[in-house]
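seq/struct pair 1
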Amino acid sequence: MSDNPYEVLLEALPTDARREETLPELERRPDPWESAMQATCECLSWRGTLDNLERRHAEDALGETTYRDFPVHARSAVVTAHELMERGAFTPDELRDRMKLIRERLNRA
């Protein structure tokens, strides 16, 4: 296991993923999971768990450094998970286990 507790997030980047580079790629209609993610972030902010402005600042900083290889639209999810792990909401092992369960469920369909 890595000394980096956020390695679990970096493992989520598919080998064929690429960063959007053109305006049409960036100016697309959000996928349903992205809209749900934004609603979740709003709820986290409303309940005082993760302020939207703090999350956006973290997304700017981490999105251009640690998670720069992730597609722009996926960064919100990984940065939110990063920030929640940093605040002790769950551990890297708990996230890894949950991600494994979800992948298994999606592969059954």
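seq/struct pair 2
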Amino acid sequence: MNDEQKRAEEAQAMERVVNATRQVQVAFTALLSQYPPQGAGKPSKLALQTFDAALQGLEDAQAAFDEILNDLLDGNR
């Protein structure tokens, strides 16, 4: 892999973290709307599953980014 490809991979990993963070924010806002004063305080199963999936997506994105970052810090990239 050449340097240009490595930089593209690094940028994609960062973008994945940004997008996953946005998905968590959207899912959290939807979940929050189901609590008072707007909601009844009983979030739907779908809202909870969506939030959980968004968090998992963020964790996965962060793990992939951490791998690249560790390679950079170790001088392997």
